[in-house]
Amino acid sequence: MTPQTRPWRLAVAGCGAAAFGLHLPLLASHSAFEVTALADRDTERARTAAARFAVPRVAASTKDLLDGADMLVILTGVHGDLIETALDAGTHVFTEKPVGLDITRTRKMADRAGEAGLLLEVGAMRAHDPALHAALAAVPDPAGGWLIKADGVDEAARRRLLPSGFSPYTFAGDPPQTAPAQLEAPHQVSALQILLWQGYHLLTALALAVPGATPAACTLDVNRQSLHALLYGPAAEPYTLVISATAPGRFLEQIHFSGPADAATVDFARPYEPSTTTRVTTAAGERSGFSDPFAAMWQAVSDRLAGQCPADLPTSTALAIRVEDLALALAAICRPGPHPRKD
């Protein structure tokens, strides 16, 4: 790419809590970016976001949104059609994770973007998390571990980020997404949704720590809310993955990797709270005060737009494909849990 002499022009689709609380505050103040247009299925929500973040234009259509943009930023719940429209227009794409439920379509879009010389960046924030990388540095060759998430605070946190009068979007209001054809049972589709909607950050951490992880077992509870899985590393090292329903107000997102010489546990900050509250515990003690992985992610996007790619990390698209492959493999072997006994 030629040297950039102006900020990258970003068009943003979707003005939910992630836009108000994370993306737009950072992008509106980042010297490398200029948000030129917004769109949302609720036009009033888009107008409110435009006024708050000094965005000059609310677009009436996707074509209007893409006009003059270098990159489309997709913060909606469903991404595939918007990605393809942007690629048709020759526009780079950043999309929130996951790319979609169907890995076949993800691969096709990734190939299209690569062949056209366009970026398809995926918001795998955890890949840029200094706390996770501190844990991986402490345990470079993990021989087992666990990854746990139970989130009863996300909806309330998103509600606090939105202006008065607006409610958080839910997946229930999104257009239906096509599930992979190899998932034959409804509980398997539910498992895939839990893995990619709630467990994406955990799968990202596992994909980075253990690229050759192989799913061995997966069970979904009878209410299709909690998932328990077992995976093995290349040398049969066991990893437990738990994504659990929990009561409102409760939160736990934790990973633990153990190795021959050390172990590391990461307790991640609650959603939308400062990353400085994330803690990493090793034999050497406890660390906190880590810098913001979200800001690091967007700096990486800026670097990629300028033609720079860190040699020590896979591209975000390659990592997204790893994560979606892993989620699909777990969902394909998922079995429903037993019904509780009534006697």
From TrEMBL:
<dbReference type="GO" id="GO:0016491">
    <property type="term" value="F:oxidoreductase activity"/>
</dbReference>
<dbReference type="InterPro" id="IPR036291">
    <property type="entry name" value="NAD(P)-bd_dom_sf"/>
</dbReference>
<keyword id="KW-0560">Oxidoreductase</keyword>
<dbReference type="Pfam" id="PF01408">
    <property type="entry name" value="GFO_IDH_MocA"/>
</dbReference>
<feature type="signal peptide">
    <location>
        <begin position="1"/>
        <end position="28"/>
    </location>
</feature>
<dbReference type="GO" id="GO:0000166">
    <property type="term" value="F:nucleotide binding"/>
</dbReference>
<keyword id="KW-0732">Signal</keyword>
<dbReference type="InterPro" id="IPR000683">
    <property type="entry name" value="Gfo/Idh/MocA-like_OxRdtase_N"/>
</dbReference>
<protein>
    <submittedName>
        <fullName>Gfo/Idh/MocA family oxidoreductase</fullName>
    </submittedName>
</protein>
<dbReference type="InterPro" id="IPR050463">
    <property type="entry name" value="Gfo/Idh/MocA_oxidrdct_glycsds"/>
</dbReference>
<feature type="domain" description="Gfo/Idh/MocA-like oxidoreductase N-terminal">
    <location>
        <begin position="9"/>
        <end position="123"/>
    </location>
</feature>
